[in-house]
Each structure stands twice: as C-alpha cells, then as structure tokens.
Amino acid sequence: MSVAESMPDGSSAERQDPSGVVVAQNVSKSFGFTKALDNVTIIGKAGAVHAITGENGAGKSTFMKILAGVYRPDAGRIFIKGREVQFSSVHDALVSGVSSVFQEMMLLPNLTVAENMFLGREPMSRGTLSRRIMMRESRDALARVGLEVRPEWLVGHLTVSEKQLVEIAKGISTDASIFFFDEPTASLNNTEVERLERLIDGLRAQGKVIFYVSHRLEEVFKFCDTVTVLKDGKHVATLPRASLDEDQLVTLMVGRPVQDLFPRRKKCRSSLALDVRSLVPQQGAAEVRLQLHRGEILGLCGLEGQGQREILRSLIGVIKPHESDITRISKEGDASPLVPEAGVVSCLRKGVGFVPEDRKVEGLYPDLSIYENVALGPMNRLALFRLAPRVAELVKKIMKRMHLQASSMGQPVASLSGGNQQKVMLGRWFAAGVDTLIVEQPTRGVDIGAKAEIYRQLRNFTASGGAVLMISNEITEIIGLCDRIIVVRQGLTVFETAGSAATEEILMEYALKDTPPAKGKKKKGAGTSS
Amino acid sequence: MRQFLSRSESRSGLSPSILAIPILLILILIPAAGGFASWENLSNLSSQIAALVIVSLGQMLVAVVGGLDLSVGSVISLVTCVLATEGWPLTLTLPLAFALGASVGLINGWGVAVMDINPIVMTLSSMTFVQGVTLVWRNVPGGHIPKQLPFAAVGQTLGIPHSLLWLVLCVLVLTVVLRHTRFGLRLFAVGGNSASARLNGIPVRRITISAYVVCSMIAVVAGVYMAARIGSGDPKIGASFGLDSVTAIAMGGTQFSGGIGGVASATIGALSLGLISNGMNLLGVSTFLQSAAKGVVLVIAVCAQRRKSVGV
Prior knowledge:
The complex is a heterodimer.
Chain A: H1 3-6, H2 13-16, E1 20-31, E2 34-45, E3 48-53, H3 60-67, E4 75-80, E5 83-85, H4 90-95, E6 98-101, H5 113-118, E7 124-125, E8 128-129, H6 131-145, H7 160-173, E9 178-182, H8 190-205, E10 209-213, H9 217-223, E11 226-231, E12 234-240, H10 246-254, E13 272-280, E14 288-293, E15 297-301, H11 308-316, E16 323-329, E17 335-338, H12 344-349, E18 352-355, H13 359-363, H14 370-379, H15 392-401, H16 418-432, E19 436-440, H17 448-463, E20 467-471, H18 475-481, E21 484-489, E22 492-498, H19 504-512
Parallel strand pairs in A: 3-10, 3-11, 6-9, 9-10, 15-20, 15-21, 18-19, 19-20
Antiparallel strand pairs in A: 1-2, 1-4, 4-5, 7-8, 11-12, 13-14, 13-16, 16-17, 21-22
Chain B: H1 2-6, H2 16-32, H3 39-64, H4 72-83, H5 90-114, H6 119-137, H7 148-154, E1 156-157, E2 160-161, H8 162-180, H9 182-192, H10 194-199, H11 204-230, H12 241-252, H13 263-283, H14 287-304
Antiparallel strand pairs in B: 1-2
Helix pairs in contact in B: 2-13, 3-8, 3-11, 3-12, 3-13, 4-5, 4-6, 4-11, 5-6, 5-11, 7-11, 8-9, 9-11, 12-13
C-alpha cells in the first residue's frame, strides 16, 4: 500500500493517522532542471524506524535536508505533532526537535569533540559557556557509542570512522523527538554497526521517530520497521519490512523502463588507447588494472563513494596516484607513458581530455564567452607566451556540430543551460582534437533533450576512433551508453560485463552486496578484457 | 603523541617557533642595546605596544572568521579627533566614538557577510572613507583632550604603568569572550568551515558581522588610549595600525584562512613586533631600515610556521 494513494485528496494527514508524528505531505524540490523530489509524501511514526532508500540521486538526502531545515521545499507541507512547520534554517529544525546526522561530515576540525557535540546548542550557566556540562555530557554520549576518544581532543585529529561515531553521538545526545541518520555507517566496522543498531533500538523504545536513510540493504532489513523507496525523486512505495525480501526491494529501487535515449551501439572497437597496467589511487587502495580501446565507451559504476571517482581522477592526474604504470597509445600507434604523478596538465598535453563532474567550478570559465571556453582547447598545447591565434572558424564548426543553442559565440557560458554548458565542455576537447576522453557524470544537471544529444556526441566520437572512459551515478545511463561496464565496490573492480548484457539488477547486486549473486553468472576479472 | 597533538591549544596558532621569537629578541637586546632592561625602557615599551596589542586582539577576532580589517587604523585616528573636539565633554565624545566605531564595523560586516565583498576590498574602502571623514573633522593635529584621560593612560599606580593595565584588561576580557561565551566558540566554528557551521544551526552571517563590530569597538578602545597618550587629536596617528596589526597576528600564528588564532598568539605577535621596533630604536636604526627589517622578519616568521589548518 502506498501512503500517497491513501490520501488522494491531500487532506491533513495527521487527522487520518494519529500515530504520524512527522508528516511530509506532497513535498517537491527542484535544483535547476533536476526535480530532486517530486510530490513525495512520507509519514514517520513514533517508536518506529523508517528506512528511506533508493538508488543514487533518488532524492533520499534531499528529503532529509528539507526536514532538517537545510533546504526549503518548493511545494508541500510539513507537520510535526499535528502542527504545520516551516523551517527557514537548521536552527529552526533543531528547536522543533529534529536531530540530523548528515552524510557529509558536519564536524569542524578546529573544534574539540565536546565543542562539536554542543555546537548550536551550547549549554550556559551563569551567563557563560559551561564547559563542565559539555565535558560531562559528551563523555556520556561517547561512552554510549563506545568511542574511546577524549572530549577535549580536536576533531581534526580523529580518523574518519571516529568522526562518524562522534557525529552519531552528537545526534543521539540531542533532546529531540525526530532523528535522521543519513548513511551513518559508511565508514564503520561491524562491531560499530552493531552498536549503532542497539542505539537505534534504544531510541525506538523511547518512542522516538527515526528515519534511516541508506542504500545498504542489510541495514535496511536489520534496523527498520517500514521501508520507503524513492526513485528519481518520486515516491515508489512504502511497505512494512516484513512484507519484503531483498530481491523485491532491489526491483523496487531499480524498476524503470530504460528510455529510448541512447544511440545504437556500433561495433567499432579497435586498437588500444590506454593500457593501465597498474593504478593505485591512494595509499592502501586496491590496485586497478584496465584497458581502454578506441571505438568503445567504458563505464565504471557503483554506489557513490566507492572509489570510482578516485580511479578516474588519479588516472588523469587531478589527484596524485600512489602508484601508476600507464601507457597511452596514439592513433598512429606510438606508445608513450602517461604519468599522472606529473599532474593533470601534462596528461592533458598528451591529448587526453577531462570532463569534470562540476563543470562550472572545475571545467568552464562561466563568465567568459563560448568562444574563449572552446578556444582554450586548441591553445592548450601552445607555448605560454605565443600569441593566441583566432580560431573562430573552428569554434563555429564545433558549435554547429554540437547543435549548441546560443545567440552567438560571444555569449557568456554562465547564461547557457546545463546541457549547452556541457556541450561547450565537450566542444573544447573536440576542438583540441583529443582522441581519448575521461568523463565524469556526462549528463549531471542536464535536461532530457540535451542528454540524448550528448550521448550521440560521445557515440560519434568513439565511432571516429576516439575512446571514452566515464563514470556515472545514473545506472541507466551506464547501461544504455557503455559498451563495457565495470562495477566498482570499495575501490575494487568486482565485476565486468558487456553493456548489451547488463541489467540494472545485476549491476546493483554487485554494487550493493558483499557476496556475488548465486545465479550462476560468471564473474570475470576486470583487468582481463577479452 | 596523539594526545599531545589533540590538545585544544593547537587551534590557538601558537607554536614553539612563535614563542621563540620574543624570547630570542629579548636575549639579543639585553646585551646589545644598553638600557633595554631598564625599568624606564620597559615602561616605555609597554606604553608603545599597548595600542598595537589591543588593536591586534580585534584583528585576530576577524581573522578567526576568515576575514581581515584594514580600517582599524582610520578608526583610531577618527577617535582621537572626536575626543579632541574643543568644548565637547567626554560624556558626549566617548559614547559618540563607540557609536561611530560600531557603525564602521556594522558596515564592514554587512559588506562581507551579506554582500559577499572580499574583506580586503571592503575594509580598504571603509579605511579610505573613515580617513577622509577624519581629515574633514580635523585636518591637522591639535585640539585638546580633557585631562582625566591622559592620567588614565600615562600615569602610574604603585609603580605600575597604566598602559600595562589597559593591555592586561583587554587581554583578560578577550580571553573570556573567546573561551567562555557562545560567540567565541561560534567564531571558530564559522572560521573552520562556514558551510558545516550552518548545518549545525549557527547563524553564520550574524556571527561574521558581530566579529567586525567587536573588532571596530576594540579599535575605538585603542583610539581612546592613543588620544589619552598624546593628549590631542591627530588625523594620521592610526595610519600604520591597519597593516601593523595584520603583521602582528600573522607573526603570532593566526591563520587568515580562518578558524585558528587566539588571544595569546595575537598578544605574542604584537609583542614581537613591538620588541623589534623598540630594539631598533635603542640601537639607533633608521625608521626606513626598521620598516624593511619588519618585512623580512614577518616573512621568516610565517615561513617557520606550519601553515596547515588543524586536521585538514
């Protein structure tokens, strides 16, 4: 039964369901062209743990941030204990009894553990900050999560998992009635996860409302009473946990027809373009081996933060890899080493283009014109003080080829839509004549029409002898576009398949689970592409 | 090792190399400059550096939230001129001086926190503006300070120079503000990472604006001290304080990226800078050469620090 269906008239939900302490009703939120949440209704009940789950970008974190006062919803209403609330800041939400443990670290490195735990609700006595109360209560809270650090230590010196535990201790020590946990276990070990489970049980016994935002299936099944699945910002289903098994849940998370967005795959794979014999992105990370051929689009996929981004960035030298042994083979067949340790500039000069995920900050110069942004590509290899040649004809040709919608090539890039900005980004590399592209999130913040155009451009690029290595959080995009797909989990390449044989279920199963599915599918080593 | 690293003192910006500077200077000056250790010179030193220490404390607050305030010098000049206005009693001029200081701070803070103007540009503008207003008020040094004030600055009680009392009082007040108030803690939070601070429910803009206001008010205190010391108004007296206070806190280890600094480090930085001037005066070094030497010392001091914010 879907909750949304039980209230077709949108009448005040709390009257129909007296146990709903938190009611988020028909909530919507957009960021530019992307609808992050679309008419979602979720009811949180006292003494219950409510899982909110879904793929990357399903809207889980957006939902939580709206209830935590970080974002204001575009539409919809929120009721807490029957009263409508409108949060204009995180502080408002805290006052209304909402405690949140965010996915991204919200601790301050230059403050002590105790100061961090009480920041925003500092205890006062006789007009001054009471460090005694802060120390005493944080010591208690740290003991509850079983963390052996002293409250007077600076958070900046803690390890990632210690920080996460401090964050949890901070969350549960708040005198709140509604608790949000956003992927709280990302860096915890098994013992710590078990302890978290007991803490959450304790909150449940006290009659609190607990929202548990996660895409980790084991935890959803272990901790939670009710499961809500979101997909592409839309509410898919809200079901009691008891009525679900893992496979059903995966189907709910995935279930969506692949739109007819993607160009047909062409069989044009030819010689090697990049031979990564060894790449260790960071000290202690797993060694990655892969080969990228001309004429193919190779996609790395996985859940967010599993290391696929680090693989790409260390390959091109944006972050310095710990170790690397990479050969680049030009169209003419000349092999030369690619040395990411020497930095991104030297890699780009070898004719490899990089399209970063945050094009406005890392890729484009938003205040400059289309001409200047594209012309940077061909000028990349010129000596620093050479006079810049006019390349207007080339830029015009690129604009036409990319179907770029702009009034003129003098238009500043900031005034373009996300899709057209991405075309400028790609156009820069096409103008530079690169034959290998490393692409992060090719269609982030891009509307559906421009998506199809970008896919077509990437496909044409490979058809004419280029090679593309990409990562994407959109699993449909990976399946629809890529010729070959590698699943990355915890920095390891755990599974490789041909794009035409991939399904969301298989990829998600490898991305989510510790153990590979026992359905007789052959697991191939990622490095050994046939 | 970890316990040592993790003590909260390491966000104060202090480090052994910073503490070594004034000690080294004193060890050099005692034998090199005759009369350095004399009671007379020390009390002279205290009256010379009191204003710089006070201004640097305010500058440090702004630096902790990741800002910079170049207008403090102009505020000092303005305050001396306001206090020296003929025929105006202290009961009028003192509140007026503080009100003017607060407005300058409010405008600086508004520009930086609300209009998102770079702190250097914002406070450079207000510095120029306030300097202009000061020159309109009084274009040459002169005027008269009611005589209660000079005693408060240059007198002695039980052999202790009053300048030292001004200095100690300001240090104590600022220590309490940073260590024992919500405002103090939140300054460090905003400077550490303003986005995280916001997620913790901290009103980031309000804290930033408050930092600039408090900094300007402290500059007013320094201005009152200066007026009392020279006994008249001087529209240019504060001109060097803007950059000197920045130099002082940099020497003390305060990080301009925000989140790291403290009363002790600002005081020690200002003391080091004061010792350099005082020592070179005693040694008879020309003022031009002094300025050059200060620049060299600053670069050396900053290079000797680890310029890494805690834990990042």
